Amino acid sequence: MKHIFQAGNPQHPTLLLLHGTGGTEQDLLPLGRMIDEEASVLSVRGNVLENGMPRFFKRLAEGVFDEEDLIFRTKELDAFLDEAAAEYHFDRSNIVAIGYSNGANIAASLLFHYAKSLKGAILHHPMVPRRGIGLPDLTGVPVFITAGKNDPICPAQETMDLDSLLTEAGAQTEVHWEMNGHSLTQTEVAAAAKWYEKNII
Predict the structure, then answer these.
(1) Taking the complete model, does pTM exceed 0.85, yes or no?
(2) How far is residue 83 from each of residues 23, 67, 87, 93, 114, measured CA to CA in Å?
(3) Which one of 12, 36, 40, 151 is the catalytic residue?
């Protein structure tokens, strides 16, 4: 997978940065530094193209995921994290994902499918990746979710459902609501940074 790795303090987590639809591995680098300027960073580009725009998995329509491809791409990303940890010599068990939109969805899918894939996650405007499946034991995994109450792409109910599913699996969740749409705001990033300092470092 196309990616950028920037080595940081090995005592801090490695931040896995996952862009939104149409983004690249460059997009969230500034965001990673706002969350933890000392952390190592692994920023990844999605392997799927939709009308020329990179994504992490296919969709059938707006808000309708191609579940078969989602499962395959989630497995692909989890395996890539194993390879990257070996290549760059960072702690595979100390990865915190920071995803926006499509990137947040693939990060949530990692949590839904692989219990030990992430130490924690910051999910900006995610949706429920899959419904009707049993989640792994996520006891103690900290997850921060940001959402816009007027988000036309990710309805508020999606956020509440995702929060419930993660909580039922044992994750320690916190939801930050804003009266905005789907855009990523400075205030939610600041809230994520504050949460990260309290719950991760």
Answers:
(1) yes
(2) 23, 24, 6, 13, 16
(3) 151
